[in-house]
Amino acid sequence: MRHELNLWVAGGDLRQAKLAELLAADGHTVHTWALEGHGPLTGVQMETDPAGVELADCLILPLPAEEEGGLLHAPLSDQPHKLEELLSPLRPGQLVCAGMVGPNLTALAAQKGLVLQDYFAREELAVANAVPTAEGAIQIALEELPITLHGARVLVIGFGRVGKALSQRLAGLGAKVSVAARKWADLAWAESCGYCGEQTEHLAGWLCGYDLVVNTVPAPVLGLTELADLKPDCLVIDLASKPGGVDFDAAARLGVKVIWALSLPGKVAPVTAGQCIQTTIYNILRELGV
Predict the structure, then answer these.
(1) Alpha helix locations (H) across the chain?
(2) Helix or strand or coil: residue 273?
(3) Do both 136 and 257 map to the same domain?
(4) 286 in a domain, yes or no?
(5) Of 278, 283, 286, nearest to 30 (Cα)?
């Protein structure tokens, strides 16, 4: 990777704003677009239009990259922006790094002959993001529960990266942790760590004792039957990306308190989240010889 690159960071939340500053601090020339709502960024050239993006060594789009209607995900911008508007000036073969790439961006990149890399699909980012996600979930639980996590009965659904990081930290605080998983291997690993094991497909009838249930699985796991089993004051935190793993309509009808906590790294630890993306982008650039 070259010591000085021309990088554009377009759209996104606090993660992308901090990412831009981190890249500039490393000596790169950094332009931002659709981040004007954040205010001034140190060492960064904040652009009012995408003119000049065709000179970029890499265009970095946010996580997630796009919204419905072909829009760039840009919550810190004063107005909506079409992804096509941003990609229009780019040259064939130009590098675009984006998070959670959707079908519209994939199609646009193919039409323009762009080199599209999904940094959210990288294992190193997924592992790094598990830590702030777990800490953010614990922060929510501490704020919302009327009891301490010490001694609380907690069920973590899913034993992937986030499930592992969260279970470890909850147990460290003295919670009585159980893990629900679909694979026998995951249940074996959970039990080897000292957690009780439950099968995800057979949760109904076994949920009445929990004070906190945290879902990490991006698939329907807590429907009407399962939610009806929960005791009245149980808190449910859903960490899964859209469409989530909880039947939110059923939860509302039953009076179950559910918090759908999306994009926690960017909310609770934007600097750390920006650093995680920065490291992943650098890895991609080195692999591509940029």
Answers:
(1) 14-25, 83-87, 103-112, 123-144, 161-172, 184-192, 224-229, 248-254, 264-268, 270-288
(2) helix
(3) yes
(4) no
(5) 278
What is the distance between the alpha carbons of residues 109 and 11, in angstroms, rounded to a whole number?
Answer: 17
3-class DSSP state of 260: strand
Q: Identify the domain containing residue 29 by its residue range.
A: 6-121
How far lies 8's CA from each of 28, 49, 78, 169, 199, in Å?
Answer: 10, 12, 19, 36, 46
Is there a domain that residue 276 lies in? no
Tell whether 283 is covered by a domain.
Answer: no
Q: What is the number of structural domains in the chain?
A: 2
Residue 140 counted as domain residue:
yes
Token code pair at residue 36: 């004007």
Q: Is 126 exposed, middle or buried (0-12, 13-18, 19+ CB in 10 A)?
A: middle
Is 2 a residue whose pLDDT tops 80?
A: no
- DSSP secondary structure of 196-248: EEEEGGG-TTS-TT-SEEEE--SS--B-HHHHHHS-TT-EEEE-PPTT-SB-H
pLDDT-based confidence at residue 266 (cuts at 50, 70, 90)? confident
Q: Do residues 45 and 105 both lie within one domain? A: yes
Reported as a single tens digit per residue, the pLDDT across 36-71 is 999 899 999 999 999 999 999 999 999 999 999 999
Rg of the Cα atoms in the chain: 21
For the entire predicted model, the pTM comes to: 0.86
